[in-house]
Specification:
Layout (H helix, E strand, L loop, with lengths): L1 H9 L1 E6 L2 E6 L11 H42 L3 H15 L19 H7 L12 E3 L6 H9 L6 E5 L2 H13 L2 H6 E5 L2 H6 L5 E6 L6 H10 E11 L2 H4 L4 H8 L9 H18 L3 E11 L2 E10 L11 E7 L5 E5 L1 E6 L2 E6 L16 E8 L6 H13 L7 H12 L9 E2 H8 L6 H10 L4 E3 L6 E4 L3 H21 L5 H5 L1 H9 L10 H6 L18 H4 L28 H4 L1 H12 L21
Helix pairs in contact: 2-13, 9-12, 13-14
Amino acid sequence: MHRKMAEDLQDYTIIKEGEADILMNVKNQVFFNKAQVNNRDLSIAVLRTFISKRQEEHEAMLSKRIKSAEKASEKDTSGPSVEEASTGSALDNQKSNGECEVHEEISQDEPCSISEESVKNTEGNHHGELKPPKVLEALSASGLRALRYAREVEGIGKVVALDNDKASVEACQKNIKFNGSVAISKVESHLADARVYMLTHPKEFDVVDLDPYGSPSVFLDSAVQSVVDGGMLMCTATDMAVLCGGNGEVCYSKYGSYPLRGKYCHEMALRILLASIESHANRYKRYIVPVLSVQMNFYVRVFVRVYTSASAMKNTPLKLSYVYQCIGCDSYHLQPIGRTMSKGSSVRYLPGFGPVVPQECSDCGKKYNMGGPIWSAPIHDQEWVTSVLEGVKSMKDRYPAYDRISAVLTTISEELPDVPLFLSLHNLCATLKCTSPSAVIFRSAVINAGYRISGTHVNPLGLKSDAPMDVIWDIMRCWIVLFSVYLIHGRHISKWEFADNTFFRKVKNHPVKAQAPDQPGSIILAKEPVLQANFARAVASLSKAQAKKVARFLPNPERHWGPKLRAGRQITTKHISLLGPEAVNGHLNHENGEEPKAKRPKTGDTTDPTSSS
């Protein structure tokens, strides 16, 4: 018996992450990806903030109820009888029906924060205590995420871990026992189809976590129904080739949006996913409020709160837009789907005005590609981002990926929240065939022109700005004049020299790099700048993090830090580029007891696939 157990343990390795330990089978029977530690750490940080804010909202609701009761009792002493008032109160309670309908005196932008189930949980409770949140991990695999939630997040309730693979459920149950009494008391594992389970448990979970291998599209419809009002939906998508425009028709079939292949494609992927979740929620008179949206490594991850309100749902067309991307230059424009018209206290919802662009680009004369619709409203709640970041910094020792997630959150905290997508400074210069200005110089010119600008967590070279494209191109025209004159005369020029049109005519005869007349860069440079850019160093040209030299974009901690094989697939020597020679050889040695040989080593690859080091 002991010999059999020892042989069984030889097939497993113990993996520790945070406060959880799991037994991992070396035969790749159950999926596990070490790189997703960033994802799990960030989810724990958001979950801690959610529990804290949920408690604050509950206390605020109780305080509001107490004040309302006091006002009602004051009226009772001079007006209607207590019996009539209590009857009216009962009718109000029935009228609410947990749907968080927005009353006329309450702004539609203020969602109801507490779920129907949470309110029911406090009925009959004299102290008004809020029950611990119930969490569903819909695709649990080894159960590592569920175990970390249970062991590391204070105040969490039951964690339900699902999987439709028998080997994964058995591994999860084994890991629950392996992690002791806390895990046993809080985590339960079930063999079930996540879609069916969520559909049969409507509005039951305070938090639903979707982290599939690939696209989450087939789970979204049931997920938005399983979350309580005011609850949290966490969703990951790893099919980035589809979301970023590699297969636009596939993206449209899965998410209902057509992607564009611009430098901003990863942020567009985030916004396509949010628009898809909103679309599914709208079918059930629900809507979402994003609190944090992250593109990291090889996936996107969104954290949204789900509310029910037929009236607030009418605002959805105001949050969605189509994108027009010029095929010749980097100019892009957004076309909102809807608009509102106010008259007194009434609001009418109307289709958006359009088109926002002519048939040909006003900057370079080329045609437009059209994509979307995408989520064009803010993708972060800056108050939430600040709270999550502060929580992470206060507990840095409890996050294995602290450096990475704190860097990402710091960058997000400095993003312009109301500017969809972004520009690439290098792409602008590639269009014009000119030397790129430094980010500080370009930022200063935008700020001095009276506009806002920030970085983006998606791309270290990306810049978000509310400046229109004609202003951006004017700044680039002025930069080329300034840079070319500097090269010609070998000296700096003053403002009055820079404003002299003779310099601009001279640079047309001596461009930085010649292009054909019909090229977008030539057409853009043929126009005189309307704006005379000021490149003087602006105070806000560096963000606070940059000024303090805080690391914002960190390299991967090790090689082969990326997606892994789907569970159950046989590992062969062709997976060396994905997993690394050590992992592949270790697995094959364990199976065959001999050194494997690669059939076709890649040309120019100096790494011997048969070596164990």
